[in-house]
Specification:
Layout: E1 2-7, H1 17-29, E2 34-41, H2 49-54, E3 59-64, H3 67-80, H4 84-89, H5 92-105, E4 109-113, H6 118-121, E5 128-133, H7 136-145, H8 152-168, E6 175-178, H9 181-184, E7 196-197, E8 216-221, H10 227-247, E9 253-256, H11 262-265, E10 272-276, H12 281-286, E11 288-293, H13 303-310, E12 315-318, H14 319-325, E13 334-336, H15 339-351, H16 353-370, H17 373-385
Length: about 375
């Protein structure tokens, strides 16, 4: 089958969740199908990006979108009722280019990732699938509740528009997919039960347990410019870690990941290390004893948890994050509700090596059993083929 894939970002490097999901889906789909990639770009390409993508796609089209056009289209979307992020990514000339590519390539199916790209796909003829991935409207609502007063009006407008748009585009695609059941149940459309659950996976051969000297007691990873991760990092450093530090004054925390926000950089101290971009995130996992993801806002599945569990780290997270993950609290993962909960979980894992190892093993078995890129992508293939 020939599949045209529409992405809002170039899926390499895979430092963001949507890029990671797209890259591995492309990789798995290309093993059996002819994949034509169309990706938008608003920044300088990574020097290896095109080469990596051409290794797995039969053709790669990277379409630049400039800042000037972005400002104008966001301005227009403010007045035409579309979500601002739809305006941010939409360009008339890009739409014309995509239609031309469609006419040239004659794909049998169009796969569109994220609602922000839906405007490019809805008028293309033939079968097409929209991957919501997660629920943008709820993500914006949670950010609104945690944002400064002066930005809440914009978040409120965007939330209401995304809520309407997520429902509106549902009927314009042959199929739709999403990352988890909790996310599906938040889609504001009466037919949401028809949305197919396509989870993420993890490369278990790549994220495999390795022996390293333990330099850190606790690690938290992710794109540290992403607001939910910024919020979680601050919560960890300001509210949870001090409670751990009282009992273990020598405890060390590592906050690792690309694009650290100034608020994350300000968390640095003698006992808290903020790494910024690291060439191999596996080293951060391997050099740490406990992984924690105290997520309070955001939606979707936390890839960081899949990676840490695959590397046999005992993991702690929130009810919000585990609702998408689906691990068994107390057996495969630990779940906290408040700073004292999280601190108690961390201290127990640090003080009881037998319990820590048992939790890590159960977590590894869980993620090995439930999260595999090929198994997840095969469900996507079934949608495309109408099975």
């Amino acid at each position: 089958m020939k599949i045209l894939v529409l992405l809002s970002r170039v899926p390499y490097p895979t430092e963001k969740g949507d890029k990671l999901r797209a890259f591995h889906q492309l990789r798995c789909l290309s093993e059996k199908h002819e994949v034509i990639l169309v990706a938008l770009s608003n920044s300088r390409l990574h020097p290896e990006a095109r080469k990596k993508l051409e290794q797995i796609c039969s053709k790669v089209y990277i379409l630049p979108i400039g800042v000037a056009g972005m400002l104008w289209n966001v301005f227009k979307s403010f007045f035409n009722g579309k979500p601002l992020q739809v305006g941010y990514f939409y360009r008339c000339r890009v739409n014309s280019r995509i239609r031309k590519i469609f006419s040239q390539e004659k794909p049998e199916h169009v796969y569109c990732q994220l609602v922000r790209m839906a405007e490019y796909a809805i008028k293309l003829p033939g079968p097409k699938t929209l991957d919501y991935q997660d629920v943008f409207s709820m993500g914006v609502k949670r950010r609104m509740e945690d944002s400064p007063w002066y930005s809440r009006l914009i978040f409120k407008i965007e939330y209401k528009r995304l809520l309407a748009y997520e429902s509106e585009v549902f009927d314009k695609f042959t199929h739709s997919s999403i990352i988890s059941i909790p996310d599906r149940d938040l889609i504001p459309h009466p037919g949401r039960k028809q949305i197919h659950i396509i989870p993420n996976g993890v490369d278990h051969d790549y994220f495999a347990a390795v022996e390293r000297e333990k330099k850190y007691d606790i690690v938290f990873t992710g794109n540290m410019g992403y607001p939910p991760n910024v919020n979680a990092a601050e919560f960890l450093a300001h509210s949870i870690f001090p409670l751990v530090h009282k009992s273990r004054p020598d405890a060390r925390l590592l906050i690792a990941g690309a694009n650290p926000h100034p608020r994350v950089l300000s968390l640095k101290s003698d006992s808290i290390h903020v790494s910024g971009w690291v060439p191999d995130i596996r080293e951060c996992y391997a050099e740490s004893r406990v992984f924690i993801a105290p997520m309070r806002i955001g939606t979707g599945l936390q890839n960081k948890l899949l990676e840490a569990m695959s590397m046999k780290l005992p993991c702690i997270t929130s009810h919000l994050a585990n609702s998408a993950l689906g691990a068994k609290p107390g057996t495969e993962i630990l779940v906290g509700q408040n700073p004292s909960d999280y601190a108690e979980h961390i201290l127990r894992l640090l003080n009881d090596s037998v319990y820590s190892t048992e939790l890590a093993e159960k977590g590894y078995e869980f993620v090995l059993r439930n999260y595999d890129w090929h198994a997840a992508t095969s469900k996507l293939e079934s949608l495309f083929s109408g099975k």
